[in-house]
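U., I forgot to send this yesterday:
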Amino acid sequence: MNKGVSPQKLILVFLSILLPSLAFSSIVKEEARLYRERGYEAQRIGDYETAFSCYEKAIAVDPNYSIAYNDLGVLYERKGNKSMARAMYQRALEIDPNYKEVYYNLAALYESEGDFLKAAFYWKQRLRFGQPHSRGVSEAREHLRQIGQIYPQITEDLKRQDAEFLSDEIEAMKHKFENLSSEPYIKKNNYDEEAKKLLLEMDRQKIR
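Result:
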């Protein structure tokens, strides 16, 4: 009598297929990473041909290696081949839409070509994906201010974005204060009696 395949056997079959595939993927990614590291070191010392070759090998091994595409874009741009640089940057973003350095590179590239509206788009994306007070975000904001001298709407957009960011920061501070002034938090922390009374009174009055 055929009782069929047990769930345990199905799991074993699945694992026998999946695990070798995962191991192979890990080996591939590591090989690509090593090529990229060699390329980056060659680029750092000015050996751009070796860097170019290593980056190409990295993406040949792992076609979804966004960092290597960005690196190739930088080298193509250095050679003056901006169309290929754009293609490499765009491919990097297709793989990893959160790759903030690529937004910076594309913005700078378009700005260098005088296409300020496209540059503004990518500077805004750099703002969106960066840490609020980081150097990259500060630079993006400054570029947007300069472009805003040509296109006033860009300045208005930047002001609105800054206002939204400030509003979010205020809400976060209010939420933090509400947590600090809540009775359970106060009781489990070592505030002196006067501080406890003050915070509890503020909490009761619903100070916002």
